[in-house]
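Support reply, case 0932

Customer input (verbatim):
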Amino acid sequence: MKKILDEFKAFILRGNIIDLAIGVIIGGAFSGLVTSLLDNIVSPILGFFNYGGFNNLTLTLWKAELRYGAFINDVLNFVIMAAVVFLMVKAVRTITDRFKKETPAAPPEPSKEEVLLTEIRDLLKAQAENNADQ
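Our regenerated output:
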């Protein structure tokens, strides 16, 4: 039991869980902001053309009232939130790519022929120096 509690403690204290909690809180606040944008700005502007906005759009089938206007409102809410999240992720990737230190590629290993030719060159050079000294 103690082992499970220790593993859970290590899991909770990892930075990812705290980052996730912060993301959920900010996401909830952002969702309220987008809903307010739709309800207070976008829907009234579109309501100018539609006389009342999306929320009043309904369709009655038998005794069921289908509120397709509210669905359209939710779809717009999703699209706006998805676009903002996409732009935020794109911005973070751009920033991290800019500051990422690129390690230069290591030069390729010389081939066997190059190593052999280098040894022959060095031997010939040493031989020429010995002949020049004599």
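We compared this against your earlier run and they match. Two observations from our side: The mean pLDDT is 79. Helices lie at 2-13, 15-50, 68-99, 112-133. Please reopen the case if you see a mismatch on your end.
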